[in-house]
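Batch 3, record 17
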Amino acid sequence: MAGMFWKRSGGVKVPHRKLSEARAIEQAPIPSQVTIPMGQHLGAPAKPLVKKGDEVKAGQLIAEPGGFISANIHSTISGKVKNIITMMNVVTSRPMEAIIIESDGEDQHVTMDPMPNWREQTNETILARIKDAGIVGMGGATFPTHVKLSPPPGKSIDTIILNGCECEPYITSDHRTMLEHGKAIVDGLQIMMKLLDCDNVHIAIEKNKPDAISKMKELVDKAGMKTVHITEMPTVYPMGAEKTLVKNLLDREVPMGGLPLDVGVVVQNISTVKAIHDAVLEGRALIGRVLTVTGSVNEPRNLMVRFGTSTEELVQHCGGIVGDADEVIFGGPMMGISQYSLEAPVIKGTNCILVKKADDSQERDCFRCASCINACPMGLMPTMYVQLVKKKRYEECADLYHVDNCVECGSCTFSCPAKIPLVQYIKVAKAELRKMRAKK
Amino acid sequence: MSEEQEQERKWVVSPGPHIKGPKSIDKVMMLVIIALLPATAAGVYYFGAYVLFVLGVSILTALVTEMLIKRLRKRPFHMDGSAILTGLLLALILPPRIPLWTVVIGSAFAIAIAKEAFGGLGHNIFNPALAGRAFLATSFTGLMTRWVMPVDSMTADAVTCATPLSESFAGEINSELYREMLLGNIGGSIGETSALLLIAGGLFLVAIKIVNWRIPFIYIGTVFLLAFAIGEDPVFHILAGGLMLGAFFMATDYVTAPLTNTGKAVFAAGCGVLTVSIRLYGGMPEGVAFSILIMNAFTPLIDGHFIPTPLGYKKPEKEDKKEEKKPEPKKEEEKKEDKKPEPKKEDKKPEPKEEEKNPEEKKEDKKGEDNIEANKPEKEEPEQKESIKEGSK
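Prediction for the assembled complex:
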């Protein structure tokens, strides 16, 4: 009982602003040229398999994994390789290779053999297919899915969580995917259940999507899956963050520096599950995704987009920019990443393109209101990092205040009345600590 | 390709989050001021128009002082309302007939010394308004203890009287007195007489989550229980003096209270214990101001000890500790030292400092008080700290 009184709830109430909630998913026009980066996933960048002048088709493998944690990359249109350039990674801002493909206007596809009889296939075959299709986590973290679905020996999975929380403001791509591709999600889930040999499933959806909740309930009932629970989650940011979700849903704490795997859980994003369905049952490689174009655009929309499409093209397709918006963000407003130009190509983890007026609040001195401490879903003291980073006492950030546990969800900065960019200080602390640890 | 297009718009690249919440320093200060208005109005109603001058002079002095000091320090002045709040709070804890020149000195001291000398809002150790009052109380003791009975608003002549607290030892407490104390029809500082309006304002702040409920509730609860345990009238003690004002508006000052919930609980319990101790055993009739100031001084220590446990934290530290030290003999020492301080307290009752931490406190908040206690003996610190950490987890 004492715990009830002292437990910090964590998280913040963010505005929903789901502008495109009611818009059905539309097919974006096939671009005349795509720029396909080699770094679309967590881990090692992929290695190009094609060279300038090669003819490729949509769905054809053009780059192979560059390491164990890496993923295949496929051409997303048919045409000719125009060039292989070095560009800036849209997520990490580090240089990386990218393949530019010019469309031949025919949009010819190559597909793999569908596996309607996947239940009889071995797990290895299915995992190989998921790997071949180049599937990565599409919630934003882009962790290669075949790695996630093959837990190391000795770790048993007792619960699968499908993450349909979509707690970031503005984004509606997962919401629409659940409404329109619910059947594919249920099929993809069955494949996952076989792979992980786990029956206990929670489909976690935030309460602000009642239509998605009832839709998924209906589909699960129809499929007769008694061990699949549709769980309504409170609408609190960052409910969709893996560790927060595991804590709130199962009351299990993922150990610091660990993965949900360590507590017997696999969390998978809704769109990723759909991609598994596409790859296994339809033989389609991951060459596109549903993304939300929203914010200060004339017509906020949910679009089915091929990877490598430039932001410019999609923004124009949504009627162009309104007003004096001066920031383009890949992802939601909380954790999304500002882009340097409209040339930035859509990649596997891009669930949203948000155009907005940049926030221009001025930083003031901390007046110790403890908002950040109450907002932190990881139970940290964000304000301490500001003081310590200013004094360059980075070790204390890690040793005393566990900065490594921070998931950079931005709840602290959002809640700060003094408008202190706490996440930035945390990033500085982490970067400095990385440097110091590298030296050792 | 699109270089021309790019030149049309300049893109801002900023780190996330790209949206900020609606809360701001200015708004927080404004809401606290609003919450204080009913009690302020009651002060004017009960003690007459002169109070308006006290309020005005206090707030104006605070503002002007802050502007001047900011200019001297070459720092930007923000009209964030914190100076207004300090001025207002100071006025509310002054006697109704205080000469205006005293108010100027108190208000200037609060801002210049207690707040700005430490670095301004967010950096001060002591609550500025309380520091200002403490300064006046020690410098002009006579003026600061001249209490008057409430008057019809416009009459100038006021009858000098004692506050219920200074009278209380003579006794005679009845329900009539409770009612008067709730409404504010008693002698006392300008803003602290009407417990009811202060509670209303305070609960408003708790409801909109500007004030963390733990501080006022635990503070008042501690006073209630302690008074009850000692055999005093607990209702009288929580209604009397500046407790409501102190618990809801002074002890909850963000800057000078601890950061974490547990820290706040310890802080509030400490305030409660000190308040009752000063009231009953100290030289002054009222102890709220000094108890909060004393606990303010402990805030950095409390903050250092009560670091919340992060999600997924698996206590590797304990093992580390065992490894670092040669485990067994030292462990025993720790245990012994844990036990030592307690009997000591009971032995040395006569000393005023020790008296504050009489056995009664154990009923209230064992952990917390022990910790505060533990910070005091300097030599024992290293071992003590660790035992506390383990205890608190």
